[in-house]
Amino acid sequence: MKNCLSLLAIAAIGSTFSTLTAADITGKVTLKGTPPAEKEITAFKTDKNCGAAATGSVMSRNYVASKDGGLANVFVYVKKGLEGKKFDAATESLKIDQVACMYEPYIAGVMVGQKVEIKNSDPFMHNVLASSKVKNPTFNIAQTRQGQVDSKSFTTPETFVTLQCNVHPWMFSYIGVVDHPFFAVTDKDGKFKLSSKLPAGKYTLEFIHRKAGTFTQEVEVADGAAKEVALTVDAK
Predict the structure, then answer these.
(1) Domain containing 155: what range?
(2) DSSP letter string over 76-107?
(3) b (16+ CB within 10 A) / e for 41-72
(4) Predicted TM-score (pTM) of this structure
(5) pLDDT tens for each residue of 147-195
(6) Which of 179, 207, 228 is the last residue of a domain?
(7) Is residue 95 part of a domain?
């Protein structure tokens, strides 16, 4: 389901250079309005291990925005325009860490077949439970020692594969799985850059935020032309 959205202008910010054969896609997602207040994860106070590992109050991460409204944790990827093209999985692993009883990063992206290294940096047990709605491999891994790393991969595009620690049920991480390298996650300022240069053509970008919703935008890129996309979404 696509939600109502307010789009700022999508404009070219560069020129074509004869030495380039593909375009950099960058942009920013901005949150409009005041989102619901984040909630304190009070279970930290009652869990001896997590309480000792945390510093101060630990809050939910539904809406993480900068002072100027830049919205973090938006998964951005090319949804249409690459049909029929095949890409080898990235050789660099995606690293998911469990530290101070939280998953880092909270939102991440990975290619089909790319390794995902899940680490326990805490000096106590976590149990990683992976769930999928499209028959991606699921698993249930007890990580009993500090520094333990387990490697997995996924076989099918999906937004999102969910990781949860069922010892500490507030711990979640969400992984967008795509069959190409053209994806990104907005940073703390709401900014993103697709991880690879996009060949010239017409594409549909999809933006997914777990609370604000899902949005799409058409974009056309020329060889060597840098594009900047600006998107404003409403708080819900």
Answers:
(1) 88-179
(2) EEEEES-TT---PPPSSPEEEEEETTEEESSE
(3) beebeebebbeebbeeebeebbbbbbeebbbb
(4) 0.89
(5) 999 999 999 999 999 999 999 999 999 999 999 999 999 999 999 999 8
(6) 179
(7) yes
